[in-house]
Amino acid sequence: MASFKIEGGHKLSGSITPQGAKNEALQIICAVLLTDKKVTVNNIPNIIDVNKLIFILGELGVKIEKISKNSYTFQADDLNLNYLESEEFKRDGSSLRGSIMIVGPLLARFGKGYIPRPGGDKIGRRRLDTHFEGFIRLGATFRYNKEESFYGVEAKELFGTDMLLDEASVTGTANILMAAVLATGTTTIYNAACEPYIQQLSKMLNAMGAKITGVGSNLLHIEGVKSLHGCEHTVLPDMIEIGSWIGMAVMTRSALTIKNVSWKDLGQIPNVFRKLGIKLEKRNDDIFIPEQESYEIQNYIDGSVLTISDAPWPGFTPDLLSIVLVIATQAKGTVLIHQKMFESRLFFVDKLIDMGAKVILCDPHRATVIGHDFQSMLKATNMTSPDIRAGVSLLIAALSAKGTSIINNIEQIDRGYEDIDQRLRAIGAKIERIEN
Ligand SMILES: CC(=O)N[C@H]1[C@@H](OP(=O)(O)OP(=O)(O)OC[C@H]2O[C@@H](n3ccc(=O)[nH]c3=O)[C@H](O)[C@@H]2O)O[C@H](CO)[C@@H](O)[C@@H]1O
Ligand SMILES: C=C(OP(=O)(O)O)C(=O)O
């Protein structure tokens, strides 16, 4: 297990370009399974989760060519479906969340899709009911081996139907959508997730010959087609990484430019940071964060304490709440952070409390943060990254703290952040990777 050693208190400066979006890339890479033709994908982040998924596709027999650092071609013209029933697949498939999205394309194209219970962050219950209920509605038979936590769906043919998802699951919507594009007849998916990454997947599928309308809304219409062809697709910048860089800039009181962020796809994100009192300037498609000695949390119009909570898109993403929480520890004022979706994502605040932050964990979903307004700096400490976003939040805390901190279990951070230590060093941070 590797660690980061971080000497806090150094300012950052210059500019940073966000990586391609992890959660979009995971969907897009699964979609290449829908055709036997070549698909080119650009701006794929070089991170553990994405590389694990590419490995799984390789084991399945997909021909993969890396044409540059972040571009690949994939061709799924001769698959080894026996791999799906192997012990290796049980191990590989369970190591990340994104692997669940191979099921829809495999079911649609080959009549069967299997998956061990997928991994991902341990941030609370992560059920898959929405996915499998959707496949069943399309006509698949479902089985679950409880002992091995192994899921399977099979169908000779899928038939379009109307469905109302029980929740707007992101990976669930992507999975069902990828199955429905090759079903016979028309499918409607209501209460579909509609975040930019689902929009991107829909655009890619349409570029491959699918017939999806309603893109960007929570009601998708899919007219099934017989087959899909190849295409070229470019992944959007990672909005969660963009939010993380905003956190690093403001907690170190630095000026930073975040390049080519695709402002139109950031939804509530800029507004939420502005509610914390952070100045963000739109400069063409860049975000410029000026050096700020202090930022003051806005209250509601009636003077009551601000709440920042997550909600399915176009609400605020749950993946940035840990980062907002750490930023609030140095704001002027008080905020209630309400993590509605996941029940085990806020426990990392214990570490921030050890570092001197004023945080009250009200219950597993809610924490009140009383900011220091930089009147008192966080103290360096040794800590372990429990999940990807808590890990980055602890990294942000360490960059702003007095003294040298160690963060263990940084594989959690590497799951989603490309070369984070190198990129931080390039803009002035003192961070070292220690291979234990
Ligand atoms: C690989 C990937 O893309 N992972 C993302 C994806 O995970 P993933 O697709 O697994 O997450 P889901 O959208 O299925 O749901 C996330 C959690 O929110 C709950 N829920 C969901 C919808 C809803 O209307 N109400 C509700 O409470 C679910 O029960 C679940 O506990 O979306 C999550 C929610 O944006 C993100 O945190 C993950 O980073
Ligand atoms: C929760 C996350 O990822 P995953 O769904 O892959 O666990 C995340 O990216 O914050």
Keywords:
single chain, 436 residues, UDP-n-acetylglucosamine1-carboxyvinyl-transferase, Chain, 2 domains, 23 strands, 29% helix, binds uridine-diphosphate-N-acetylglucosamine, binds phosphoenolpyruvate, cell division, Enolpyruvate_Tfrase_dom, transferase, EC 2.5.1.7, cell wall biogenesis/degradation
Structure overview:
- UDP-N-acetyl-alpha-D-glucosamine binds at residues 97, 319, 341.
- Its main location: cytoplasm.
- Phosphoenolpyruvate binds at residues 22-23.
- By secondary structure, the protein is an alpha+beta fold.
- The chain has two domains: 2-19 and 237-435, Enolpyruvate transferase domain (UDP-n-acetylglucosamine1-carboxyvinyl-transferase, Chain, Alpha-beta prism), CATH 3.65.10.10; 22-234, Alpha-beta prism (UDP-n-acetylglucosamine1-carboxyvinyl-transferase, Chain), CATH 3.65.10.10.
- 29% of the residues lie in helices and 24% in strands.
- It is built from 14 helices and 23 strands.
- The chain has helices at residues 22-31, 48-59, 87-93, 103-110, 129-137, 170-180, 196-207, 239-251, 269-275, 321-328, 349-354, 388-400, 411-414, 420-426, and strands spanning 2-7, 15-16, 38-42, 63-68, 71-75, 112-116, 141-145, 150-154, 162-164, 186-190, 211-213, 219-223, 231-234, 256-258, 281-283, 286-289, 306-309, 334-338, 358-363, 366-370, 382-384, 404-408, 430-435.
- The strands form six sheets. The protein has a four-stranded mixed sheet, with helices on one face.
- Strand 7 (141-145) and strand 8 (150-154) form a beta hairpin.
- Helix 8 (239-251) packs parallel to helix 10 (321-328) and helix 10 (321-328) runs parallel beside helix 12 (388-400).
- The longest helix has 13 residues, at 239-251.
- The model has no long low-confidence stretch (mean pLDDT 96).
- Uridine-diphosphate-N-acetylglucosamine (UD1) binds at residues 23, 26, 97-98, 125-126, 167-172, 312, 317-319, 341-342.
